[in-house]
Specification:
alpha/beta; five-stranded parallel β-sheet; binds adenosine monophosphate; 14% strand; 191 residues
Length: 191
Amino acid sequence: MSGPLKLVLLGRQGAGKGTQAVRLAERYGALHISTGDMLRAAVAEGTEMGRKAGEIMDRGDLVPDEVMIGIVDERLAKPDAVEHGFLLDGFPRTVAQAQALDALLAPARLDAVVNIDVPLDEVRDRMRSRGRADDTDEAIERRLALYEEQTSPLIDHYEAEGLLVVVDGLGSMDEVFDRLVVAIDAARERS
Ligand code: AMP
C-alpha cells in the first residue's frame, strides 16, 4: 500500500456513490473529484460551458466526452491532486472517457475501480424520493438508461484490466462504507 490514492467509483445514480466518495476521500486523505459537482459549479457561475452543460444535465443526457476529458485532465494535473491522490466520482462514464483516463495516468495506473452495486429497482425508488432539482421522472429514466448503455460497459473494460472490485451497495451507509474500506485496502495491497 503506497503512494496517494488513485481510485474510480462507479455505481448507478442513487447508489450512494457521492456520499461514500466524500467519506472515503476523508479516510484516505485524497481529493474527492465529482464531475457532476464541477459542472453544477459552472452552471452556478453562469459560464458559457455551464450554460450548455446545464441544458444537457436537465435532460439527463451526457456532456460530450471531449469536454469532460478536458475538465478532468486539467483537474488531475493540479499539484494537490498529484500530491494527495484522488477519488473520481462520476467520471469516467463512457469507454472513451475510460480510455482517455488510462492514457492520462500512464505510466501510472489506477489502484482500483470500485463498483457500488445496487439493483435498478432500488435506485429508481431512492432517486424518486430524494427529489434533487434535476431529478424529474424523465431525467431519472434517461440517466438510468444511459448508465446501462454507456457506463456499464466500463465494468467489462476495468475487469479486463484486472482493476474491478464490486461492493454490495445494499444496507446502511456505515455498512457499505466498511465494505468499501475493506475492498479498497485489499486492492491497494495487491496493486
Ligand atoms: P452526477 O452528479 O455525477 O450525477 O452528474 C450530473 C450530470 O452531470 C449527469 O447526469 C451528466 O449530465 C453530467 N455529467 C457528470 N459527469 C459526467 C461525465 N463524466 N460525462 C458526461 N456527463 C457527465
